[in-house]
Hints:
Four copies of one chain form a homotetramer.
Chain A: E1 6-12, E2 17-19, E3 26-28, H1 33-39, E4 46-54, H2 61-73, E5 78-82, H3 88-97, E6 103-107, H4 121-134, E7 138-143, E8 146-149, E9 154-156, E10 161-163
Amino acid sequence: MRKKPVLALITGGTFDKEYNLITGELFFKDTHLPEMFQLGRCTLDITVRTLMMIDSLQMTDDDRRLVVQNCSRCEFDHILITHGTDTMVQTAEMIAQANLNKTIVLVGAMIPYKFGMSSDGFFNLGSALAYTQVLPAGVYIAMHGEYFHWDNVRKNRKTGYFEPINPDL
Amino acid sequence: MRKKPVLALITGGTFDKEYNLITGELFFKDTHLPEMFQLGRCTLDITVRTLMMIDSLQMTDDDRRLVVQNCSRCEFDHILITHGTDTMVQTAEMIAQANLNKTIVLVGAMIPYKFGMSSDGFFNLGSALAYTQVLPAGVYIAMHGEYFHWDNVRKNRKTGYFEPINPDL
Amino acid sequence: MRKKPVLALITGGTFDKEYNLITGELFFKDTHLPEMFQLGRCTLDITVRTLMMIDSLQMTDDDRRLVVQNCSRCEFDHILITHGTDTMVQTAEMIAQANLNKTIVLVGAMIPYKFGMSSDGFFNLGSALAYTQVLPAGVYIAMHGEYFHWDNVRKNRKTGYFEPINPDL
Amino acid sequence: MRKKPVLALITGGTFDKEYNLITGELFFKDTHLPEMFQLGRCTLDITVRTLMMIDSLQMTDDDRRLVVQNCSRCEFDHILITHGTDTMVQTAEMIAQANLNKTIVLVGAMIPYKFGMSSDGFFNLGSALAYTQVLPAGVYIAMHGEYFHWDNVRKNRKTGYFEPINPDL
């Protein structure tokens, strides 16, 4: 079977943030993933499920457990998760501890998709979808066109880039 | 070594077309790939080489031989090629016949990158870059977030979608 | 009465052209004006009427007469007309000959609105809508943030800019 | 002389805000007006002067006096001012009290120009530039494709729309 069904779990993050023109603040409405897959002319078998729409700094351990449950209890072997970048590594770690025999890729954006051509979101989604389909079972983070193993990555808060903890691995 | 050096070969195609506001026609100036990698916040080791800037309907066998030569004579094992979609499969076939032991991914766009948020180019580039890094040696086409083996894909000219010749493979 | 009702007549032109990803050619579907007025957060009393959706090089004298009739027989004193730039001046001339005591502003774009941030269409529409509301009765062309009297303007086909025939007037 | 020289004074506001991808907050770098005039293919004689780059809620009376001085002491009779929307009316009032015999138009945006096609900034700039050229001497606010007299306008903070205090005037 060539096309592997993919589950896309939505948790919010910068990816899906929008600008509130009354307050001047960022907020969440609906996920833009279905629109993005359509613009990408994707005909893969993708199921989109919105678990929560939050900033990852607000994500609690209960929230993370919900993510893990959705990964373990579903019938999918290929799972893409949109996530705020600030605590993406923590969530990846908790998923990894569940020892699921699945390919699970977390992806985020540094600039909201709705901010137009300046956003990295559309590019990141394309690479994450590719990694979700072809990487062996494991938990990964896909950012900047790269993938990182969950246990060898950190977000550099000064530069805004994800980087390997040990670059030689 | 975690980060594999990638060679990006530019041949033109819809990807890099621009709108000439005097004639109302599409034309080529420079490739947008370096700008796109920057917006994607890519820090991978990518070398961009422009071989030609043409519509793939104009591509001759000499042009294709130039592409094959650049694939075979370079030191890179991971090669991404931007290409017009109309004859992408032909070029993939000629590269495959060279029997190079490298991962080579051809990618295109149905709408020029310069046409803004409606273009599929940025998404396709993200997925192609991922496939270039992780697929085993072989020649592939990356479109719509998917990858296709060079010998099991055709462009459906009615729908504008790439599809497998034999969907069961 | 502060807000003057405005009639927006649509004739097509580069303004409303879209990219056909199957043929690689430009074509017309629906006008983008209602969407553009909404993005501009316009609450003015604007009525949009699509007369035709054509390239202005294809516009016949019958087509132009239809435009003149719609200007003369309507109840509006402030009329904005979207029009291809190539024969905009001819249409303006025929409207002027009808000696209507109304403010009529023709506006176009050099790059289709759908081509994103590179298009001049949204800017031109903003200025044309302003001129339609405040210029005295007469027939004008609004391009590049400027307005031109119908009898002192030509399109420079080499540069793609509208310019006065006599710059001292 | 057909083309009237225009002075564009920059004070900041949502218009010119950018997204800081490290902090997730909005900030100011340089003004986007020259780029916007270029995309609008403007060849008018426009001089751009950046007075300050601030949120209008931070604007002090000293800041406003600087704006008034720049309006009064310059040689221009047609002045466009970019300004945050929150205190735009206050600044307009202080300029009006200076009784300058000039056409002065304040303009803002509800969504930053850098946020792409969702921004109203490019449209507002087009209409403001038109009003600056053709309205009689006075102080005006240009928003949503409309113009308002400085003494008959308020920003409705609930809806985010500017509206006349007395709609019958």
